[in-house]
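Support request from a user on the community tier.

User writes: "When I paste my structure tokens into the form, the page sometimes reloads and wipes my input. The last time it worked, I copied everything first. Here is what I submitted, just in case something in the input itself triggers the reload:"
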């Protein structure tokens, strides 16, 4: 990595630190490897879809992040100015055999190919043409890059940009608030206050106990990062 490739460097959230630790501690386990696979039907412009993804990646620094920890006092996330989007297009229309079985094999092979977390991008996309107007879309990424809430936001933005591109319009986008802002906010929170809150909330628990979702929701601040 050269200085001109570097856009930003900042610390990880505690949750990201845990994900990175377990990823490095258990190579080959598939921990925090996320895979979204769905079928797309209708006329599809694959070139416009790829351009849409590239635009969204260019807009969001968090999607261009990787992690560095060797010879450092703590791990950091490094944002690269640019990073190529791993993109594969496959045509299975004339493929002999069972497409469902072939897809299961493809997904399994994709899951086995884990990410090198020190190298961006920590995501990749495959678009498989199954029929004239039927495609399988596969998006794989490391969970330290995105959570469930963010996945929906990214998909909504991608297809919003795609709609504009196929209509010949330039997408109208709002300014992006970087993930760095959340890390800065997190570092400003009082650790003692948080400790007192959880000690009070968990008072009476003496052994490992499953927390029902309803109870977990009741102590949530409603923020999902």
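"...and here is what came back when it finally went through:"
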């Amino acid at each position: 990595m050269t200085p001109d490739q570097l856009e930003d460097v900042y610390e990880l959230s505690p949750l990201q630190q845990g994900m990175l630790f377990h990823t490095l501690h258990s190579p080959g386990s598939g921990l925090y490897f996320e895979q979204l696979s769905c079928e797309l039907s209708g006329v599809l412009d694959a070139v416009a879809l790829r351009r849409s993804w590239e635009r969204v990646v260019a807009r969001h620094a968090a999607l261009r992040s990787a992690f560095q920890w060797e010879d450092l006092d703590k791990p950091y996330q490094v944002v690269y100015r640019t990073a190529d989007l791993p993109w594969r297009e496959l045509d299975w229309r004339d493929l002999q055999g069972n497409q469902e079985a072939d897809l299961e094999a493809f997904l399994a092979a994709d899951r086995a190919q884990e990410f090198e977390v020190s190298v961006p991008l920590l995501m990749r996309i495959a678009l498989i043409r199954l029929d004239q107007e039927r495609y399988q879309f596969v998006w794989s990424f490391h969970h330290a890059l995105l959570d469930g809430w963010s996945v929906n936001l990214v998909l909504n933005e991608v297809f919003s940009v795609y709609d504009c591109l196929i209509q010949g319009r330039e997408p109208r986008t709002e300014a992006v608030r970087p993930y760095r802002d959340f890390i800065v906010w997190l570092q400003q929170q009082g650790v003692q206050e948080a400790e007192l809150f959880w000690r009070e909330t968990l008072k009476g628990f003496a052994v490992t106990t499953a927390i029902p979702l309803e109870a977990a929701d009741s102590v949530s601040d409603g923020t999902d990062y």
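Agent notes: The reload is a front-end session timeout and is unrelated to the input. The longest strand covers residues 33-41. Strands lie at 6-11, 33-41, 65-68, 76-80, 87-91, 123-131, 134-142. Escalated to web team.
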